[in-house]
Amino acid sequence: MKTILAAVDGSAPSYRALEQAAVISKALGADLVVLLVRQFIIGRHDVLEVWTNEQVSEIMKRVGKVVSESGTPSHRILEEHSRDVAYAIVEAALANHVDLIVMGASGMGSIKAFILGSVSNSVLRQAACPVMIVH
């Protein structure tokens, strides 16, 4: 296993997933790719970002803290913009030759999850590599 992707959305489960991904990455000597998908919504007249720049900055700070505390030797942070978070995670995994995706069981998309199904469930169905779901 050479590359592990941790998807982070600012929720407690996503930070727990990041912690687990960092532990696995360190133990295996694998590269850690942290992915933050900035979801946007297209309205009638506007494109709306789900997160503000301040919220993204806070998430990035917390990601940096978790990764540095874990002692993971090699990591990088990717920021993607997408309407479909699950699709963005799967595509980032393919583009970065990821061997394992680690993500939280539930995240910030609870209304969409209620209507359409969860992001983690969608990634499980679409990913070309193993997916670890952290509660």
Structure write-up:
The chain has 135 residues and is of the alpha/beta class. The protein has one domain (3-99, 120-134): HUPs (Rossmann fold), CATH 3.40.50. The chain has helices at residues 12-28, 53-70, 85-95, 110-116, 119-126, and strands at 3-8, 31-42, 47-49, 75-82, 100-104, 131-134. Strands 1, 2, 3, 4, 5 and 6 form a 6-stranded mixed β-sheet that branches. Helix 1 packs parallel to helix 2 and helix 3 runs parallel beside helix 5.
CATH class: Alpha Beta
Helix content: 40-55%
CATH superfamily: HUPs
- Described by its quaternary structure, the protein is single chain
Which value, in Å, is the CA radius of gyration? 14 Å
Helical segment count: 5
Outline: globular
- Could you give the count of β-strands? 6
The CATH topology assignment is Rossmann fold
Q: Main β-sheet, in a few words?
A: 6 strands, mixed
What is the structural class? alpha/beta
Number of domains: 1
Detail the poorly predicted runs.
none
H/E order of the elements? Answer: EHEEHEHEHHE
Please state the second-level CATH architecture. Answer: 3-Layer(aba) Sandwich
Please report which band the strand proportion falls in: under 5%, 5-15%, 15-25%, 25-35%, 35-45% or over 45%.
Answer: 25-35%
Could you tell me the mean pLDDT? 89
The N- to C-terminal Cα distance equals 22 Å
